Model the fold of this input.
Amino acid sequence: MNHEYEKARLAALESLDILDTPPSEQLDALTKKVQEEFSAKTCLVSLVAEDRQWFKSRQCMDATETPRNISFCTYAIAEEEYLIVPDAKADKVFANNPLVTGKPYIRAYAGAILRNKDGYELGTLCLLFDEPRDFTETEIVSLENYARTAEIIIFSEH
Done:
């Protein structure tokens, strides 16, 4: 992402006034449903700020944020629609990532991008798994549909 675009993306995120706000019952219900449907270890609504990714909703994750420079979601928001990593240990980008080699020991990742009405990538609805996992086209479409629902909830609350 170029510097000007990133400045505008961060301004769009900051304009929501959502960072460090209390959990959302609606988003928590959604992430719980998605976690169960995909049998994921963890499901998150992750927002990518300047130096961190912050979790607006999290299932089975104690941390409320992680440094941006090690976040999978930073890579996801650079994609067109989503990022799928079937086996992080076998992926040259992520194999040595501290989130793979240490807690939470991510082995597979699926993240669908969350955007505002102007198209800026604010973060992801993402799933973490502790075993390698492939994703079908149907599952990817389902995750993207859940991401659209997460966007509706975020924008109705902020």
